[in-house]
Amino acid sequence: MKERITFIHNPDGDFDAERLTVTKTSVQIKALKASREERLTLSPHELPQEDNLIEIPVNQSRHRLFPTYHYHDFSPSLRDLVTYLQKKICPEQENECSSAAKRLENSAYLDIDYDAASREFILTSFHHESPDLGGWNEEVKRRWKSEKAEVGLFTYQEALEPEELSFGGYLIVISEDKKPRPTRFSFPSRHHAVPLASGSSFLATFPTPTGLHPTLRLTFPHPISPPARGCALHTYLTLPSSFFVDKYQLSSPNFLAAKNLRGVRALSGETDLEAPEWVAGKWGSTMLLELVHHAPHQAGFKTAESQWHVDIPLHLRYLPPAAGGATSVDLPWPIVFWACPAKEGIDLNGNPFDRINLGYEVLFDPSTTFYHFEPQPMGEGGSLIEQVQVPVMDLQESRWVESGTVGVIMLGALWVMWKLVRVSLSDWQSKKKTILPKKVL
After folding, report:
1. In CA terms, which of 152, 243, 398, 408 is 20 to 30 Å from 63?
2. Could you tell me the strand order of the sheet in which 26-32 lies?
3. Closest Cα partner for 47 from 140, 112, 142?
4. Quick one: pLDDT at residue 195?
């Protein structure tokens, strides 16, 4: 088992190495205001024995394997996963393990990966800040002799190259280091935040009324400009099965231009335009869209503070009936980023904090770097999930519809039967007249 805990604190903060207490078996941290990443690496024999693992053939010539399939499911909380970890992974009477699992409920993201080459499971969680106002206060211990536990405390430093990230701070390997070890390192990174000077945030909304053909609007508070030459603006949408896009509608150049869209670059999943939600065979679909961007000097902006937006037309499938005649569907906010070509000869695989298999990066060249816009929901603690109210059949009124439908069908059947009987009687009477014998004179 390997455990790596990394704290990234603000360069302007008042961090002092004296707040660290290093012993032979632990590192104690006091009042540290910082972001936190925790990465736990487990070998198969360290997992519960009732979990059956199936060996997958691996092409050893590949440095990294990207997933062939993707699955999406909306889960408002990680509480069920936390309960599973506490009962199945954490040993009995192990309060530290249980507390670490409980901490996952407040994480900004949780990645669960399997490295086929090393046959290891990797769990990575990230917190933007401590849930306590006073900062992080904890003691990180080495629990077993076979475990390797590392604690890093770093801050961002100015990088020499624009595609690099640079950190400086302290690294401690528990049971090996007697005091914090000063460290500085740099590496090319696949993912970056959009520079503030380029316009770094966006807002996603559904203008009302939405109806059955809602429009997802992405609003940028200021004119934006690419971080480097050759960058293209994209958004990647994860659409549950209740939503779909019309790929034929998004193929019209004039329509795309009116919506500030450049074109669909990838579309996969459920794309049937007629299927209701309960017939859709997949969980939904994903779409990569290239967007038009306007620089501050271009026409359409009166001032440097002007907003501009992109409209993405979506459609709703027919949904199952519900009480009250309406139901709500959820749509996660899309990802918005610049995709930029990297310099030749740069190896992006050396980032110790790299995140891969996110779905969209496999649609680009492996050397592409991504500059991400920060989502800015409205209100304090705003959600990155948009809800749409959809009109459906009212279950309370459906009995009248059912009775009326049955009645109409029966009346229609009786009418058809009556017409058939009339035709049959008419034919019989005609044949009867035809076969009557003529009178002999």
Report:
1. 152
2. 20-22, 26-32, 136-141
3. 112
4. 80
Q: How far apart are CA 292 and CA 226, in angstroms?
A: 11
Q: Where are the alpha helices (DSSP H) in 202-339?
A: 253-258
pLDDT the model gives residue 97: 78
The answer to whether 355 and 335 are in contact (CB under 8 A) is no
The answer to whether 310 and 224 are in contact (CB under 8 A) is no
Model-level pTM?
Answer: 0.79
Residue ranges in the chain whose pLDDT is less than 50:
51-65, 299-304, 441
pLDDT, residue 146, reads: 62
**Element holding 414 (H helix, E strand):** helix 398-434
Residues 6+ apart with CB under 8 A from 264: 245, 247, 250, 251, 287, 288, 289
Cβ pair 345, 258 in contact under 8 A: no
Contact 243, 277 (CB under 8 A): no
Cα 125 from Cα 109, distance rounded (Å): 6
In angstroms, rounded to a whole number, what is the distance separating the alpha carbons of residues 191 and 175? Answer: 33
Smallest CA-to-CA distance from 192 within 64, 66, 310, 354 is with: 354
Residue 232: its pLDDT value, please?
95
As a whole number of angstroms, the distance between CA 23 and CA 220 comes to: 50
Q: Are strands 2-9 and 148-157 parallel, antiparallel or unpaired?
A: parallel
Among residues 337, 314, 334, 335, the alpha carbon closest in space to that of 390 is found at 314
Identify the pLDDT of residue 145.
64
What is the distance between the alpha carbons of residues 127 and 108, in angstroms, rounded to a whole number?
5
DSSP state, 22?
A: E
Q: Got the DSSP string for 147-202?
A: -EEEEEEEEEE--SSTTEEEEEEEEEETTT-SS-EEEEEEEE-SEEEPPGGG--EE
Contact 375, 200 (CB under 8 A): no
pLDDT at 339: 95
Q: How far apart are CA 206 and CA 167, in angstroms?
A: 40
Give the model's pLDDT for residue 433: 62
Q: What is the pLDDT of residue 348?
A: 85
Rounded distance, CA 316 to CA 211, Å? 9
Query: What is the Cα–Cα distance from 302 to 298, expressed in whole angstroms?
Result: 10
